[in-house]
Amino acid sequence: MTVKTLFIGMDGATFTVLDQLTSAADGAPVMPFLGSLFKRGTRSKLRSTPNPLTPPAWVSLMTGRSPGHHGVFDFIRAEERGEDVFFTLYDSRDCRVETIWSIASRQGKKVAALNFPFTAPPPKDLNGFMVPGFVPWRHLRRNTTPADLYDRLKAIPEFSAQELAWDFEQEKQAMESLSDHDRENWVRYHLPREKQWFRIAEFLMREEAPDLMAVMFDGVDKLQHQAWQYLDPALQSPEDGEYHRRMRSLCLDYFRQLDSFIEALVTAAGPEVQVFMASDHGFTATTEVVRINTYLGEKGWLAWKPVPDTEEGRRREDSMFAYLDWSKTVAYCRTPSSNGINIRVAREPGQPGIPLAEYETTRERLIRDLEDFRDPETGERIVTEIHKREDVFPGSAMGDAPDLQLVLRDFGFVSIKNKLPVVEKRPEPAGTHHPDGVFIACGPGIAEGKQIGRRRIMDVGATLLYSLGLPVPSDFEGQVPEAMFTAAHKEAQPVVIGAPTTGAKGGDGDAMADDEKAQIMAQLQLLGYME
User: One MF term from GO for this chain (predicted)?
Assistant: First the structure.
């Protein structure tokens, strides 16, 4: 038995960076093997979810369904309780639809899925192997399946569960004091971590040869958040100082190593494998901080109480909504990562918020205020796109989505802090998510040297099932990009639309301890998703 389909996820990968790293214009390419895949295969931009964020995007890729159907919109679910907002971390049990791991498993295919977020706890019906991402290392054993896999992995030379998962202490230090030295160390520590995931993938391919081998490398996203200025080709200059050049060299070492991992996995899979690579979103530079709740306050949509001039008062201010005047608040943004506005609606007598009958007129008035949010010097709109939730999140889970989804002019995430000025230029460009990621394919039956039009992230799941020789479920929103394949391949293996999915197969698992949840919240703060 051999691997039939190899999928390599690269969180946040963008052609903006990859095209330069695969080019020989400035000497030897940093990623020569990936460059050879570009020449031997097909590529396209990959449009992410309406909010191009890791949770909704990866879950859409893994389910072939959009967030309005699978129900995962953010890292955390925010819920009003009295005069405060409480946050709960999403996990795999919040996904309302079936994943490709379960779909392939119930049709007899053996799968291996490594480091994908929101796969913990793993599905009960998995035929194969799963080591989830986005969990503290102390939870890895109990969320690794099958039960004996964790002990088998410990036999891999230099295996380290702590290194494999997030090093919260390392990242906490970076958050507290992001000096040049700390930033360099923070980037440096992702190199051995990615090697851990590579070794597990290599081990499972050699020992188990699953039909579908899938592994995700998330260091791409983490480096680009903290070190975008050293990677963006537009931000490089011959006059860059010694520290800048050293940081760029370190980042290039990361991508050089990643290229070697890709080459080793593709080579080990053999000449008959179809290889697919994709990212959940792209990356670009954000140049300003937009304090959306401050703007809503200026327009009268929310109000803040005075902060007591005491140490305790200032400490409470760190709790985002401690001083929000709920009696005067109609609309507000709950999390930076949501880039969304929630309108408070009283759906039953006695509940806070506007009457349901006033919802449409209220929302239209709010949209007009957001359209009027402009740069005072240029007149340019700060919020370039404002989407109603029924337009971008249709489906049974739409009720959990923000009422309005925003896109800022520089694609940044909003700030929800009550600070001035409303818009502030950043001291230096920072990395943020762009809606266009990457989709790459190579192997037998894949058209060579071809670029096709932009695809949607839900298409990846449909494509992986097609590559395995399985029908695409009729309720999938994702479609197989047939232009990616040769005519001979499509004739020999037509795309078949099959029975609908059978529903989510959530796993059983223990809840995280409070300190572990706090560590993940700290991680989200470091990456700019929380404040």
Answer: hydrolase activity
- List, in sequence order, the alpha helices (H) in 378-502: 389-392, 458-467, 487-492
Amino acid 62: pLDDT: 98
* Average pLDDT over all residues of the chain: 90
**Hunting for tokens 């394919």 — which residue is that?**
441
Cα–Cα distance, 347 to 341 (Å, whole number): 18
pLDDT of residue 513: 60
**Helix or strand or coil: residue 248?**
helix
**Residue 166 confidence (pLDDT) above 70:** no
- For the sheet with 331-332, list strands across it: 331-332, 340-343, 404-408, 383-388
Rounded distance between C-alpha atoms, residue 392 and residue 278, angstroms? 22
Q: For the domain bounded by 5-276+462-479+491-527, which CATH number is listed? A: 3.40.720
What is the average per-residue pLDDT within 211-225? 94
Alpha carbon distance 349, 407 (integer Å): 34
What is the residue extent of each domain of the chain?
5-276+462-479+491-527, 288-425
Which residue intervals of 177-317 are DSSP H helices? 180-188, 190-207, 219-227, 242-269, 292-298, 311-317
As a whole number of angstroms, the distance between CA 74 and CA 251 comes to: 28
Cis peptide before 473 (omega within 30 of 0): no
CA atoms within 13 A on the CB side of 62: 33
Query: Can you read off the two tokens belonging to residue 67?
Result: 């967030």
Q: Is there a contact between 357 and 419 (Cβ–Cβ < 8 Å)?
A: no
Instruction: Name the pTM for this structure.
Output: 0.92
Cβ contact 144:164 at 8 Å: no
Q: Cα separations (Å) of 121 from 111, 135, 137, 153?
A: 16, 10, 14, 18
pLDDT, one tens digit per residue, over 485-531 is: 999 999 999 999 999 999 776 665 555 566 656 666 665 655 555 56
Residues 6+ apart with CB under 8 A from 339: 51, 333, 405, 406, 407, 408, 413, 414
Tokens of 90: 């999403």
Mean pLDDT for 283-293 is: 96
Cβ atoms within 10 Å of 260's Cβ, excluding its own: 15
Say how many C-beta atoms besides its own lie within 10 A of residue 343's C-beta.
18
User: How many Å apart are CA 281 and CA 54, to the nearest integer?
Assistant: 8
* Residues 413 and 337: beta-carbon distance below 8 Å: yes
